[in-house]
Amino acid sequence: MDDLMPTGTVCGPDGCEAPKGSDAGSGEGNAAATVATMPAAMPAVGTRIDIVSDAICPWCYVGKRNLEAALAELAAEGLHFSVHWNPFQLNPDMPKQGVERAAYRAAKFGSAERVREIDARVAGAAAAAGLAFRQDLMLRTPNTIDAHRLIWFAGREAPLGENRQDAVMEAVFRAYFIQGRDIGSTEVLVDCAAEAGLDRAAVVSFLGSDVAAAEMLAADRAAREAGVNGVPSFFLDGYSVFSGAMPAAQMADAFRRGRRVLEQRET
Questions:
Q1: In terms of CATH, what superfamily is 2-97+143-266?
Q2: 217/145 Cα distance (integer angstroms)
């Protein structure tokens, strides 16, 4: 589906800029390798959306809001999709305990003034999507492996037909971007999970283990090796459709066309 690869605003290891190209999906053979939880068989053609993202990516949260609007538009037409979240680390070398955010970002982006410019642009885009980012409350840049593990766990724990993973992703995004909480903290992640309806004791036990840590690192590496260099990146049945926080109407159109192409391949 190489003709279905528009690019919106993305975050990459060097920061959050837009628009910039991504090689995600430039070849069909490796696209599915970026998706950590892709099942062997799917219930219907062109109905599974996988999102490669990071929990500290502002454009991933904006993209989530735009996706929700796009899915509502598509549902009104009788088109329904399932949504699944997959890991990517914007800062793969981040220490387990995270770092002080202001100094880290000033060093990463060159100056505190440059950081303020980036934050103002991001906050404006978030506000347009109905999100009130509180960058003034965000004091630490966390390691996000445990956040990714929790999202993976939510996907396994949800009853059939219930998207508990999406609810946990929402809670984690909200904790970081709106409440300014440290999502590298087990306590914060447990609160997010409980807010989304997961059993608190089960989550405490899970996060106290190393279950799925290696799998999350492997999925992150696979995404990079498959050409994902910016998030969010969106896949339909394992094929890359687009990257970036595109407007809802453009997202809806991309999924319509992607589904049509996949359906035609089945005939």
A1: Glutaredoxin (3.40.30.10)
A2: 8
